[in-house]
Structure formats: C-alpha cells, structure tokens
Design a protein that fits this description.
The chain has about 475 residues and is an alpha+beta fold. The protein has 11 helices and 11 strands. The strands form 3 sheets. A 5-stranded mixed β-sheet has the order 6-8-9-11-10, with helices on one face. The structure holds adenosine-5'-diphosphate.
Length: about 475
C-alpha cells in the first residue's frame, strides 16, 4: 500500500512531538520523585530527632534511669505518647532488636528484619514496600545506642500526586499527537498538492504533452514548477527543430532521388534520340555501299543524311547547353537589355522562316528593360518563336507583345497553331518530350526547345509559362524582373 506524502509528514510531526512530550515527562516525573524523597527523608529524620529528645527527657524524669529497664517496662506507654506527638504509627525495639511496644503493622517481614539489623548498628535506614515506608532510626543516649525506633509512613499521598502528573502527561501526549497530526495534515496538504500536481505535469510531458501550467507559489515548489515549464518548452522547441530538420533532409533526399531519376531518364533519352538519326545515316551509307551507281539513291541519301546530320548537330548543341546550364549556371554576362530591341532582332532573323510557312506577324512592342544575358534571352526567344512557327497552321499568324506590369517585363508569344492537348500541358517542358514525334522530327525538333528556354530564363531570374492552349492556338509568356529606364 502506498502511503501518501501528507500522511507521512503529518505522522512524522506527530511522533516527533510525542517523543518531546515523553522525554519532558520523564524528566519532570524524576524531579517530582526525588523532591518527594527529600521531603519525607527530612520529615522523618526530624521526627527521629524529636523522639530521641523526648526519650532523654523521659529517662531523666524517671527514678530508675536505666534505659533498657525503662524500655521493657514503659516501652508501650512511651510509644503511644510518641505516636500522639508525631502523628505517625511506630514501633520501639531495645538494643537486642526485641520489640518493646505493640505491633501495629506487619513488622515481621525479612526485609524489615534486615533493615532492623542495619539500624541496630547505630545507623538510620529505611525500607519502602508498595505505598508503605518503614523508617528505622537509633534511639540514643549520648553516643550510646539503646534501641531502635521504627516509624511507619504512608507514601500514598505522594504516589497519588505522582500518578496524577503522569496521567496528565499521558493525556497531553495523546492530545498533542492527534492535534499535531491533524494540523500537520492541513499544513502539508498544500505542499503535497503542489508536489502531486508537479508529478502529474511530469507524467504528461512523458506522454508528449509539452504545454504546462506554472504553479503560482513563492516557494521552492513554485520555482521547480517554473523550471519544469521552461524545460518542457525547450524540449518541445528542440523536438520541433529536429522535426523540421528531418523534413528538410527528407525533402533534400527526395529532390536528390528525383534529380537522379531525371538524369537517368535524360541519358536514356539522349541515347535514344541520338541513335535514330545515326541509324538512318548508317542505313543510307550501307545502301550506297551496296549500290554505288544508283544516282537517285545517292540524291535521296544526300538530302536525308544532310537533314539528319543537321538535326543531330542541333540536338548535340542543345544537350550541351542544357547540361552546361545545369552544372555551372553558365558564364552569363549580365547587362541591362532593351527587351523591345532584342525581340525585334530575333523576329527579323526569323522573317525568312515565317515567309516560308506563309505566317503573318503582328507585334505590340512596348519599351521594357531587364537585367540579363543577351545570348540567353535570344535563345529563349528563338525557341518559343520557332515553336510558334513550327506548330502553326498554314497561313496562320503570330502575335508578339512586350510590356511591363507589376515590376516585371512580360513577353507574350501567341500563335494560331495546332495547340497542345490539355492533359499534356505539364509535360512539354520536360527534356525530349514531344507531343507528336513525327511532326517534331519533320520540323527538326527533339523536345529540347522548351526545357532549354525555361532553364535560360530561370538562370536570369525569369519564368516561362504556358498561358493557354486549344484549337485556336497557343500562348506562352516569358517574364523577368523589370529594370526601370
Ligand atoms: P521541339 O524541339 O520538339 O519543338 P519543344 O521542347 O520546344 O521541343 O516542345 C515540346 C513539344 O511541345 C513539341 O514537340 C510540341 O509538340 C509542343 N509544342 C511546343 N510549342 C508549341 C506550340 N506553340 N504549339 C503547339 N505545340 C507546341
């Protein structure tokens, strides 16, 4: 059974007080006992002296002055007179130890006899038996002992007083024990409640609940409660920080594995895409080896090998750019660029290509300036405009807008082309992804243009996003932080 701390403390206090009362009572009762002894010793010695004086007076007044004769003849009478004078019962003995007066009490016990023998040697002695005290003193004339006088003294009065005091101490002890237990219980209750509450708080912390309340007390328990509160807060914060670090680590690991996956996919794609034109070139070379005189085959082989080589060259170029951007963020030369002029320059260079496909161009070019690398911006523009031409419809059109809004330079390129299926919108920015492999191949594309454009834009703090797409065509928007003129 678990005894509560309140009971333990209260019991301790009560037992302590009981012990104090016990030792105090022992001391007081001892004092009373020795004081009573002094009192009756003095009293009886005085009575013995008086008896002796009276004995001498009686002998002197007698005709026969022999003490032994007086005692044997008039011992009884003399004893009665002494009893009246002293108020005590007594017995007289002669020098041989024979009783010369009436027996009033039991004087025959062995102990009294031994005491009498002692008193017959001219010494005072007394004996206590229960509440009775026998005081034996020599009867003398001058220095000569002629007998012994034995007083009987009742100790019941002294013993009654002693018993009353002892009883009083027992009552005081019991009362103090009960009172101190209850007072202690009430006093320690407030401490124990504090300690119990602290214990509950610690249990809750162990279960993972770190919000604690502080006990408002000015003592050590209050301090301890404040300490536990602070410690619990620190544990909670440390755990949160650890959890945040763990999450960060997990994100980093996830990102790394995604990058690893992307890299593997990229390498797989590169291998595949490079193999296709090389296979085609190898096939034509094999055919030419077999039929060296076939003029028509030679012409077809030259045309096809030229286009495949061109595609291969463009692919190698873009792949190199992509991986360079990935690794070194490239050696970009940042300068203030006039966006309107840069767009016009690229549009001019693509004029011939637009004419070839019968595509008309509309522009709404506002003045805009940005901080960036001239070549990178050109690459972004060329790729997006090239797509607007490649994936346009016959006699379609392209609209190019430049403007500044919310401190950003925006370049919008909209075409009236074939559009991109809704469910593939998020994929077109992945390297090597093409919606229609054949059409892309016909146009010399390998699915690298948009990813390259986005990477270049991002290296200058910009973005490339698909605004909308559908049967009516597609719109892309390029944005960069604007620089005020
Ligand atoms: P590619 O070199 O094949 O053009 P891109 O990365 O530039 O590669 O484009 C990826 C794919 O997105 C293209 O194959 C094409 O299917 C689609 N696409 C890109 N731009 C347009 C556009 N303006 N209109 C329709 N489809 C587009």
């Amino acid at each position: 059974m678990k005894i509560s701390i309140k009971i333990k403390f209260s019991l301790f206090l009560a037992v302590l007080l009981l012990l104090v009362v016990f030792f105090l009572s022992v001391l007081v009762l001892q004092g009373i006992r020795s004081n009573q002894q002094n009192q009756y010793e003095q009293y009886l010695s005085q009575q013995a002296k008086l008896a002796n004086t009276y004995f001498i007076q009686r002998i002197l007044s007698e005709e026969n002055k022999v003490p032994q004769t007086f005692l044997s003849v008039k011992g009884q009478e003399f004893a009665e007179q002494l009893e009246v004078i002293s108020g005590l019962s007594l017995v007289l003995y002669n020098s041989q130890g024979e009783r010369v007066s009436k027996k009033v009490t039991d004087t025959e016990s062995d102990n009294i006899k031994k005491t009498l023998d002692y008193a017959l040697n001219n010494k005072t002695a007394y004996l206590t038996e229960g509440n009775s005290l026998y005081y034996l003193a020599p009867l003398r004339i001058g220095n000569e002992q002629v007998g012994v006088i034995q007083f009987y003294y009742s100790l019941s009065g002294h013993q009654g007083f002693y018993n009353n005091i002892r009883q009083l101490f027992i009552y005081i002890g019991a009362g103090l024990f009960i009172l101190s237990f209850f007072l202690g219980y009430i006093y320690y209750n407030s401490f124990a409640t504090g300690i119990i509450k602290l214990g509950q708080t610690v249990d809750r912390i162990r279960e993972g609940h770190y919000e604690t309340t502080v006990l408002k007390r000015g003592d050590e328990i209050g301090k301890l409660s404040q300490g536990i509160h602070t410690m619990s807060g620190q544990i909670s914060r440390t755990l949160q920080e650890m959890e945040a670090e763990q999450n960060k680590l997990k994100l980093a690991v996830d990102k790394l594995s995604l990058l690893d996956q992307q890299q593997k996919q990229f390498i797989g794609n590169v291998t595949h895409e490079f193999k296709t034109p090389l296979t085609s070139i190898k096939a034509y070379l094999d055919l030419l080896e077999m039929y060296p005189d076939d003029e028509q085959l030679l012409q077809t082989a030259i045309t096809n090998m030229k286009s495949e080589t061109g595609r291969l060259y463009e692919m190698v170029d873009k792949v190199l750019q992509l991986s360079a951007l990935e690794k070194y963020d490239f050696e970009l030369k940042f300068e203030k660029l006039a966006v309107k002029q840069a767009v016009e320059l690229v549009l001019n260079s693509l004029k011939g290509r637009m004419d070839k496909f019968g595509i008309s161009l509309d522009t709404e070019l506002g003045e805009a300036y940005m901080e960036g690398d001239k070549d990178s911006l050109t690459i972004v523009l060329i790729n997006l405009l090239d797509n607007a031409i490649k994936y346009n419809k016959a006699n379609g059109s392209i609209l190019v807008k430049t403007y500044v809004a919310s401190h950003r330079v925006h370049i919008e390129i909209s075409d009236t082309g074939i559009g991109i299926p809704e469910d593939l919108i998020h994929k077109v920015f992945e390297p090597f992804y093409t919606v229609d492999k054949n059409r892309a191949r016909e146009n010399g594309g390998a699915g690298l243009g948009l990813s390259l454009a986005r990477k270049h834009a991002e290296s200058m703090g910009g973005t490339v996003e698909l605004l909308n797409t559908g049967n009516e065509g597609t719109s892309f928007r390029i944005s960069f932080p604007a620089v005020m003129n």
